């Protein structure tokens, strides 16, 4: 039974060289996706199909069938939720570092309708597209004034170094005061007792 006889195409979801359709298996009504590689036996499509052999076993089980659909290479999978298309799913699952590149392309397409879609040629080595991040040095502990740039005024302004503020501990001061008052009260009480005994009439 041919793929056309087995699966009913319902809705075209994406066409970036791979036409992805929401479809259903006619015999079981199972929802699937049919991915028709409309460029035929191109080098890019052959490379993409070759990657299917390197899918991890759990992902390989998501392939329902494959073959020709009206003379075009075709792969049938379950619903690839979370992936824009078939190509992105294959690229990520055979090389997880590709997911960041795919997300970059999607973000670019949000703001530029003419941005290229995700194709095999767009997947450059990650090392070539890495952005170098210059780490700043640890702050110096010297007393020299620090230079800071005010984004509103433009030129760098000199900010005098501030001495560290002394941290007061109000609870310690209250404790010392309470002890002093306690000692003073004890002394006064002792003086009062002595005075009463000394001047008590016999």
Structure description:
By secondary structure, this protein is α+β, with helices and mostly antiparallel strands. It is about 35% helix and about 20% strand. It is built from seven helices and seven strands. The strands form two sheets. A five-stranded antiparallel β-sheet has the order 1-2-3-5-4. A two-stranded antiparallel ribbon has the order 6-7. The longest helix is centred in the C-terminal third of the chain and has 29 residues, at about 170-200. The relative contact order is 0.09. Residues about 120-155 have low confidence and may be disordered.
Described by its quaternary structure, the protein is single chain
SS element count, helices? 7
Q: Radius of gyration, rounded? A: 39 Å
The major β-sheet equals: 5 strands, antiparallel
CATH architecture of the domain at 3-125: 2-Layer Sandwich
User: Could you give the order of strands across the largest sheet?
Assistant: 1-2-3-5-4
Distance between the termini: 130 Å
Low-confidence stretches: 118-157
- Tell me the fraction of residues in β-strands, as a range: 15-25%
**Helix percentage range:** 25-40%
Shape estimate: rod-shaped
Q: How many β strands by DSSP?
A: 7
CATH level-4 homologous superfamily of the domain at 3-125: Phosphorylase Kinase, domain 1
Average pLDDT level: 75
Secondary-structure blueprint:
Blueprint lengths: L2 H4 E9 L2 E8 L5 E7 L5 H9 L5 H4 L2 E7 L2 E6 L8 H9 L3 H14 L14 H4 L16 E4 L6 E4 L10 H29 L4
Antiparallel strand pairs: 1-2, 2-3, 3-5, 4-5, 6-7
């Amino acid at each position: 039974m041919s793929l056309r006889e087995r699966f009913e195409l319902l809705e075209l979801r994406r066409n970036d060289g791979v036409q992805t359709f929401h479809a259903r298996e006619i015999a079981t009504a199972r929802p699937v996706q049919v991915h028709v590689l409309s460029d035929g036996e191109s080098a890019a499509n052959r490379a993409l199909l070759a990657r299917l052999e390197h899918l991890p076993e759990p992902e390989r089980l998501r392939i329902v069938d494959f073959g020709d659909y009206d003379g075009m290479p075709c792969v049938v999978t379950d619903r690839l939720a979370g992936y824009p298309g078939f190509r992105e799913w294959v690229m990520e699952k055979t090389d997880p570092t590709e997911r960041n590149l795919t997300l970059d392309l999607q973000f670019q397409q949000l703001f530029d309708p003419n941005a290229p879609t995700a194709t095999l040629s767009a997947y450059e080595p990650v090392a070539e597209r890495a952005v170098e991040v210059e780490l700043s040095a640890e702050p110096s502990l010297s007393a020299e004034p620090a230079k800071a740039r005010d984004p509103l005024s433009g030129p760098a302004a000199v900010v005098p170094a501030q001495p560290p503020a002394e941290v007061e501990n109000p609870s310690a001061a209250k404790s010392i005061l309470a002890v002093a008052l306690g000692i003073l009260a004890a002394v006064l009480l002792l003086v009062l007792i002595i005075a009463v005994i000394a001047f008590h009439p016999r």
